[in-house]
Amino acid sequence: MSNTSEDNYFSLRRLILVDSYRTGAITELKLDGHTSLTGPNGVGKTSLLRLIPLFYGESPNKMVQGGGVNQSFVNYYLPHTTSFIIFEYSRYGKVCMVVLHASRSAESVYYRFIDQPFSLERFRNEEGLVAGPDLNRHIRKRGEFCSEQITALSDYRSIIQNAVSVNRDHRTLAANFSFVGSSGRLSHIEKIVTGMFSRVTNFRDIKRIIVSCIVDDKNNIRLETSTSAMKGWVRDYRAYVSVMEQSKHMQDFQALQMRHEASIQELRLVYSEFTRLQQEQEAAIEQKKLRAEEIQNEKRLLENQGNDRIRKIVIQLGMVEGQIHSLKEILQGLEKQYLEYENDGIRDIARLVDSLPQLVEDLGQENRIADGATRRIKGSG
């Protein structure tokens, strides 16, 4: 529901669940544009969507009737003191909130209006999430407005639909938080919205809406018709009956559509897993390529080092071979000299050399004898 001017329109922006039927989770559904809600069966898509009529004043207990929920609304949607259902909406360019939480006895649903957009910090303190009954005090400590708890559904409905007639405080709240301008009314809109979302309504609700419109605007009601209009009604009615006869097929189609969407979601999950595995595989291949390059570089380095060592060994081997060659020449010279010595009687000479000390000693002995004889001769003369 919106007008062309951004500062002069009403829009339901977001539905947020805090610590609701998914304990500890923050679930957000954007409502200010086209939204696609997909997921496997049993994850809570329907449980989330059926809450939207609450904003317009529908009874909470009606939201769990015939929906496969065997608990009360409070036990299912607001099971903890820190559970909240939050509707963020804008009116005349101002973003504000409607907050639903359980009473202290966990038997009733209470409503509060806050003149700020949703922020999780507005529902937290140093210890964690704030309890619903303490929310007013917590928000006011922040210097922001939070209404007193509204305990009756009819009072909340009259405020959000701008249908307050008596209570002065409620008229003030309606002037600041209703989902319609000051001169407008949204009486029974919750029935229309519920019918839209459940695709089911009943004649009693339609009668109430018509009577309410007549009572609210009785001076401008005018009933008139024509033959062509009546024929159109009959034609439309027959078309309606024809369409309703296909409701069974439509239900089958919806079931097929849900299975189709679930299959698409599963395929998305499979594709996501495949993409992840592919990325991991590509990353592993890239790592192996890098490792192969490192090994190749190490191989080249080792080959270069080996070639350098071989070259050094070859040089050293050449030097050793040169030294061996020189030694061989020296050896040959020595052998030649040895042969020459052999020819010259080197062995006899060697024996004489070996006996030289003995000869020297013998000569010394003889000299001593001779000296002794000489001294004796000189003594006797």
How would you describe this protein?
By secondary structure, the chain is α+β, with helices and mostly antiparallel strands. Among the domains are: about 10-225, no CATH class; about 345-380. Helices cover about 55% and strands about 10% of the residues. It contains twelve helices and seven strands. The protein has helices at about 45-50, 50-55, 60-65, 75, 135-140, 155-160, 170-175, 190-200, 205-215, 225-245, 245-345, 345-380, and strands at about 10-20, 25-30, 85-90, 95-100, 110-115, 125, 130. The chain has a five-stranded antiparallel sheet with strand order 2-1-3-4-5, with no helix packed on it. A two-stranded antiparallel sheet has the order 6-7. A hairpin with a 2-residue loop joins strand 3 and strand 4 (about 95-100). The longest helix has about 100 residues, at about 245-345. The relative contact order is 0.06. The model has no long low-confidence stretch (mean pLDDT about 85).
The H-and-E topology, N to C, reads as EEHHHHEEEEEHHHHHHHH
Beta-strand percentage? Answer: 5-15%
How helical, in percent, are the residues? 55-70%
Q: What structural class is derived from the secondary structure elements?
A: alpha+beta
Distance between the termini: 173 Å
Shape estimate: rod-shaped
Number of strands: 7
What summary fits the major beta sheet?
5 strands, antiparallel
Q: Which spans have pLDDT < 50 for at least 5 consecutive residues?
A: none
Write out the strand line-up for the largest beta sheet, numbering strands in chain order: 2-1-3-4-5
Number of helices: 12
The radius of gyration computed from the alpha-carbon positions, rounded to a whole number of angstroms, is 55 Å
Q: What integer is the average pLDDT?
A: 84
